[in-house]
Design a protein that fits this description.
Elements (H helix, E strand, L loop, with lengths): L7 H8 L27 H8 L3 E4 L7 E5 L1 H6 L6 E4 L4 E4 L4 H17 L13 E3 L11 E3 L3 H4 L3 E12 L2 E9 L14 E4 L6 H13 L3 H7 L1 E11 L11 E12 L13 E8 H9 L5 H13 L11 H7 L12
Parallel strand pairs: 1-4, 7-11
Antiparallel strand pairs: 1-2, 3-4, 5-6, 7-8, 7-9, 8-12, 10-11
Helix pairs in contact: 1-9
């Protein structure tokens, strides 16, 4: 593959990776580096990396860690009296252990940080609450403003759907281009439908909502035709394209769906987040992937789609096993159902 084109494994590395240097400070522009290590693969490297983070613990949730903060985040954050900060153990924890008090403390903390202009990423405030995934029922109902999740390094959930049409020439995929005005990854290519799962929302209902908002797809078409295809998971490190501070940890789990559309159903933008939709052949999509036109996690979703449909195989991809296994990273935090 040409020097200016990305291999499929390059695309995986771009989304599911970390560079040791960027985990301690912001504004690092070189985002090419080693994959975020698994403990079993390299215990020494894993321990070295993990020791550089501050751990976020929610009181009452079995004392388990639910997020990782960069030292720079801890230093810049205008902490309120609602949190315990230990620089010796590198631990951030809530003082109260009931869900309502924790939610109010987190909201108060992020509002204060936004008002003081502590973090650029908070300029993208959405008034949208994401669930905090805690390891047991004590954490059920915990939530955080979407714009603040990367500061605390918590796992976020989303839905992605690839819509496609079959013609006599073969399969064609519906590909949207994000509006250039979007705060994150403006102007890049995306999956047909994609979005975050809000607090209290089921994955499939989130998909129905996003399909209407982003692609004007009728609810009955999506409910009848969308097929659940599992999940992908990765640990991303934000770069300048994401907006705000670079180097923030962003672990994500995406619920994956496919939708085969008849030729007369055409996705159309219904808000200002999508510029337009293209109906592209598989070859056109692969070329755009190689050129780096897709948002990093969307590239991962499309590789998963190609594996599922027998387009990407062991016979035509030398890194097939590595790619497929890397599409499903085991998260370094206790996981529960959404």
């Amino acid at each position: 593959m040409g020097s200016n084109l990305k291999s499929n494994l390059d695309l995986v590395d771009e989304c599911d990776k970390s560079v040791l240097l960027i985990c301690t400070s912001y504004d690092v522009t070189d985002v090419n580096g080693h994959s975020f290590p698994y403990y079993d693969d390299n215990p020494e490297q894993y321990a070295q990396l993990i020791s550089s983070f501050y751990k976020f613990r929610v009181a009452g949730s079995s004392d388990e860690i639910v997020g990782w903060l960069l030292p720079s985040t801890v230093e810049r954050m205008p902490w309120t009296e609602d949190f315990n900060i230990s620089h010796y153990t590198k631990m951030i924890s809530t003082k109260n252990d009931d869900v309502d008090s924790i939610n109010k403390a987190i909201e108060k903390q992020l509002i204060k940080a936004r008002e003081l202009g502590a973090f650029k990423v908070l300029k993208g405030w959405r008034d949208e609450l994401y669930p905090i995934i805690a390891p047991n029922s004590a954490g059920e109902g915990l939530k955080m403003e979407r714009a603040g999740t990367a500061l605390f390094g918590i796992v976020t959930l989303g839905v992605h759907m690839t819509a496609y049409t079959r013609t006599k020439e073969g399969m064609s995929v519906w590909v949207p281009r994000r509006a250039k005005s979007k705060q994150t990854y403006g102007g890049m290519l995306d999956n047909t439908v994609a979005g975050g799962i809000s607090q209290g929302e089921e994955p499939f209902e989130s998909l129905i909502r996003e399909a209407a908002e982003e692609a004007s797809l009728p609810e009955d078409i999506v409910r009848k035709g969308a097929k659940a295809c599992g999940i992908i998971s990765y640990l991303h490190v934000r770069d300048k394209r994401a907006g705000g501070e670079t180097g923030l940890l962003q672990p994500e789990i995406q619920y994956v769906y496919d939708l085969e559309l008849p030729s007369h159903i055409v996705p159309e933008p219904s808000d200002d987040e999508v510029e337009r939709f293209y109906l592209w052949s598989v070859e056109d999509v692969q070329q755009a992937l190689a050129e780096g036109q897709f948002k990093p996690n969307c590239a991962m979703l499309l590789l998963d789609f190609f594996v599922r449909h027998g387009i990407l195989t062991a016979e035509n991809e030398r890194d097939y096993v590595e790619i497929v296994s890397r599409l499903h990273r085991r998260m370094p935090f206790p996981m529960t159902s959404h």
